[in-house]
Design brief:
223 residues, Rossmann fold, binds pyrazine-2-carboxylic acid, binds zinc ion
Length: 223
């Protein structure tokens, strides 16, 4: 897909980098490993340093589930990871996942190569057993927020830059909610990787973002 990237972006104190779910379980070797998820760590650290140098804010999101979370196939009789499943109110689905990012486990920890020193704030999500939270802003049923918006607004943030894992789930939903909540959103597609479940999901989510007011940025987009 043809993607056009923004140019000459100058980072300032009204900008936030949102680094989504860079946790062991989403990285090769983890229980919900995203292909090549490890390959983006170095560049995420680089761009995070650049944000710091220019007084931007850095936020990490962390998927943080209880063991009995209903997004896990293991908590549904006869279901396997990847099976289609959609609850009526959109709280869980469209597929079920392997157990991942269980609170307090190694898999839920940030990857040890990610530079945590640069983070201003960590936002945890997915704690409610009955509701998933792909977006860093709010639960899938849109009934409760994580505190991200409140934090961004307390810092007077106008633009958000989204990177991390996974492209077609937590990054995508974070970007779309960012737009809905009135921020200018830049999707750093080269600093994400997708799970592509169901197949074609990466392509579809990229298409939806292209149709929206979301802009695309890469490392070279910055001054
Ligand atoms: C994610 C599936 C389930 C993600 C989190 O971080 O994209 N995907 N939980
Ligand atoms: Zn999850």
């Amino acid at each position: 897909m043809q993607i056009e990237y923004e140019k000459n972006i100058k980072i300032n104190e009204r900008d936030a980098l949102i680094i989504v779910d860079m946790q062991n379980d989403f990285i090769p070797g983890g229980s919900l490993a995203v292909d090549e998820g490890d390959l983006i760590i170095e560049d995420i650290n680089k761009i995070a340093s650049k944000f710091k140098e220019n007084n931007g804010i850095i936020i990490l999101t962390q998927d943080w589930h209880p063991q009995n979370h209903l997004s896990f196939a293991s908590n549904h009789q006869g279901k396997n990871p990847g099976d289609n499943f959609m609850s009526e109110d959109g709280a869980i689905g469209p597929v079920l996942w392997p157990d991942h990012c269980v609170q307090g486990t190694k898999g839920a920890e940030f990857h040890n190569e990610l530079n945590l020193n640069l983070a201003d704030k960590i936002i945890q999500k997915g704690m409610n057993t009955n509701v998933d939270s792909y977006s860093g802003f709010q639960d899938n049923d849109k009934k409760s927020e994580t505190g991200l918006r409140k934090y961004l607004d307390s810092k007077k943030i106008k633009r958000i830059f989204v990177c991390g894992l996974a492209l077609d789930y937590c990054c995508y939903y974070t970007a779309m909610d960012g737009l809905d909540f009135g921020y200018k959103v830049f999707f750093m597609v080269n600093l994400t990787r997708g799970v592509d479940l169901p197949e074609g999901n990466v392509e579809n989510t990229l298409k939806n973002m292209k149709k929206s007011d979301i802009k695309f940025a890469k490392i070279e987009s910055f001054k």
